[in-house]
Specification:
single chain, 382 residues, alpha/beta, 7-stranded mixed β-sheet, 3-stranded antiparallel β-sheet, 11 helices, globular, binds pyridoxal-5'-phosphate
Length: 382
């Protein structure tokens, strides 16, 4: 039997030594490593600047906060996503207005967005679900028409592009996550990018209390500075940034392995009639292949738990993206009284999908093993 974890951070001597070097120095925040990580990241995504943050949640919060979105405002949020996509809107005092998913990709159903826009709407947030880019051309048309901010949650989409342009550079900003099971990790961490320099500058200021000067920059008397607004402490430490710099060196290789594993598993899975796989990259849309989501045929949906049990018992780690649509999580359900029928597609994906691993910690034989184990489980239970 194989042991195949769903996600596993890819950390080796390079990261360990980089962290050790940071710890041998007195500078643990505000140092050269976070600047280096931001530089490498902005080069990779081809963005004019990148702002490292303590998490993707922090980056998303700053994206709204810095645009003064708050009480009385509404933001369009996909129903099928990590709860952070909605929480960061709610944290500002604004109301998340949920929109259902489309069945082919799990991305926000763009056809439904305009029905939910009113005079209070300030922004549209999109999530590139499992790395498959949302059609940003269509989102942009709607945003232009109603003069809305577009926030891209790119937490699962490092390496995803549309027409060769990295996600996060299509809307007004993009927020990335470096949580351990994402494409790269810094333990905890996030990044904000924007094609608008003034947006990044404001976020950079509010990330660190709105202190008007960076450390080491133009302080004639040590400890003297002014504070020009309300802000947070959402910085990334030098320890995390040092890990990030090393991870970026491995990113191309990670992405190649993900794509290879995904294609291979897809081929294997085509032999199983009782499942459907999501549409992945096609044409101008290029995915970062976060994982392989399979949708079970209707007659197998109530067997999902058993199928997952069989996979896990045979050493295959699985996950569910996401266990419930966000508006059906207790907090939002109780606030707004949503029911499953309000988000039929998101609910269907949540209740009938299984997420399988394709990460760079896995090899060719693992893809065959996962597919065979799944085929056997379905045969046994159907
Ligand atoms: C992981 C994730 C987040 C949260 O990222 P953190 O870095 O843990 O704050 C937000 N959105 C999506 C889509 C995610 O997958």
């Amino acid at each position: 039997m194989r042991e195949i974890p769903f996600g596993k951070p890819f950390i080796d001597k390079a990261e360990q030594n980089a962290v050790k070097r940071v710890l041998e120095n007195p500078i643990l925040v505000h140092g050269p490593k976070s600047i280096e990580f931001e530089d490498v990241f902005s080069r990779f995504t081809n963005s004019p600047s990148a702002v490292s943050c303590s998490s993707c949640t922090a980056a998303l919060h700053l994206a709204y906060f810095s645009k003064n979105i708050g009480k009385g405002d509404e933001v369009i949020v996909p129903a099928l996503t990590h709860v952070a996509t909605a929480h960061t809107v709610a944290l500002t005092g604004a109301k998340p207005v949920f929109v259902d998913a489309e069945m082919n990709t799990g991305n926000i159903d763009i056809d439904l967005i305009e029905h939910r826009i009113n005079e209070n709407t300030r922004a549209i947030s999109v999530v590139h679900f499992l790395g498959m880019p949302v059609d940003m051309g269509r989102i942009d048309k709607i945003a232009q028409k109603y003069d809305l901010l577009v926030v891209e949650d790119c937490a699962l989409a490092l390496g995803s592009t549309i027409n060769g342009v990295h996600v996060g550079m299509h809307g007004d900003c993009g927020c990335f996550s470096f949580y351990p099971v994402k494409h790269i990790t810094t333990s905890e961490g996030g990044m904000f990018i924007s094609k608008h320099k003034d947006y990044s500058d404001k976020v950079r200021l509010q990330r660190a209390f709105c202190v008007d000067k960076h450390h080491g920059e133009g302080r004639k008397i040590p400890g003297s500075y002014d504070v020009v607004g309300i802000g947070f402490n959402y910085r990334m430490s030098e320890i995390s940034a040092a890990i990030g710099v090393e991870q970026m060196k491995k990113l191309q290789d990670f992405l190649r392995k993900r794509e290879f594993n995904y294609a291979l598993m897809k081929e294997h899975l085509e032999n199983i009639d009782e499942i459907r796989v999501f549409r992945s990259s096609h044409g101008k849309f290029r995915s970062s292949y976060y994982c392989m989501n399979i949708i079970l045929a209707d007659n197998l949906i109530d067997k999902r738990e058993e199928i997952i049990g069989e996979l896990n018992d045979n050493g295959v780690g699985t996950s569910i993206y996401y266990p419930k649509p966000v508006p059906l999580m207790s907090v939002y359900k109780n606030l707004y009284g949503f029911e499953a029928k309000d988000f039929p597609a998101a609910n269907k994906i949540s209740s009938s999908s299984i997420s399988l691993p394709v990460g760079p910690h896995l090899h060719e034989e693992d893809m065959a093993y996962i597919s065979n184990t799944l085929a056997k489980a379905i045969e046994k239970l159907s």
